[in-house]
Amino acid sequence: MLRRFYKFYRQNYFPINGAIIGLLIGLSIHFLGIFATLFLALCTFAGYWIGSRLKKDRSFLRNLLDKILPPSSYR
User: Fold this and answer.
1) CA distance 13 to 16
2) Residue 34 C-alpha from the chain's centroid
3) Contact, 25 vs 33, CB < 8 A?
4) pLDDT means per 10 residues in the chain (75 residues)?
């Protein structure tokens, strides 16, 4: 039974994931409201962006903080 479900999932990966994401967005809008949902999506995107940049360049966060903060304020 589990193998059949896994095979079905592998064949329909994008539609199933799209439905799950749509359900989560709908529930989030319903329970949190539109602005809280947009803020949550913005924070999620920012975390993904920073994480993907850190994967490429390990000193990205230090360089970003050097641009934003005065020298030696976080060291």
Assistant:
1) 6
2) 17
3) no
4) 91 90 93 94 90 85 82 60
